[in-house]
Design goal:
- It is a single chain.
- With 111 residues, the protein is an all-beta fold.
- It contains no helices and eleven strands.
- Strands 2, 4, 5, 6, 9, 10 and 11 form a seven-stranded mixed sheet that branches. It has a four-stranded antiparallel sheet with strand order 1-3-8-7, with no helix packed on it.
- The model has no long low-confidence stretch (mean pLDDT 95).
Amino acid sequence: QVQLMESGGGLVQPGGSLRLSCVASASIAGIYVMGWYRQAPGKERELVASIHRGGTYYMEAVKGRFTISRDIAKRTMYLQMNNLNSEDTAVYYCSGAGNLWGQGTQVTVSS
């Protein structure tokens, strides 16, 4: 089974940027849809963005600030996050095909 591993989280000031990466242990070419989810303390996990052969999806709160992409050759999916604010603080998880999950990476936005 393909394993996913996130990296790139950390502490950033409001207005700052981070790029998350999700590396797969095997090819992701056959995974139709991949996505980034996040879960803040006391809240349910929510879909932040997804990417498939037909295009991309973004939740309303991150439109214009976040960009999802993937490099099939590198077996990697990315989430470029710009103009971060405190509401973006959460553990971010990458997911593939709805049943593959990484361990999560913490993103904290604070001054």
